[in-house]
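Write out a sequence, fold above all:
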Amino acid sequence: GAAAMLTATGLMAVATSSGPAWVFLPLHVLLSVALAFVFTPVFTAGLAFLPPQLYPHGSAMLGTLQQVAAAAGTALMVMVMSTRAEQLSDAGASGVEALTGGVQVALVVGSLIAVGVLALAFRQNTPPSDAGSPVAPGDLADLADLEQELASDPVGDAEPEGVQARRRRIP
């Protein structure tokens, strides 16, 4: 995902000055798919270290952090783009040339950030397979008993003893 993100932003930076406008559609699709491939494993690995009772809080914090980072990244790119466009305009470039140059520099900065993301992708820690698991390996027999208790009460009026026991063990 990170490599595709780097590829998409790098090609966009090159295509800004020389490519036709239609080239940006497939590059934007590639960038969007790459971001999905980056976010999904990062969120999964980030939440996997949490105990199950903290999953909702961790998910909320991660979603909030993602939105704040997106706003900060957008502000950074707009600042870079407008600063470069103003420099080019002051140097005598036309409005279109100045804007094109600003967008190109902003995409180069995005590509540099993507290089950092790619480097960090190789350092992503994954938790052990049982970390944060709500079910300990020895509890599988308890789950089978719980399923039998639930099956014996088709209406669901009575709370099975297994559920009561589990509630007593949850901090």
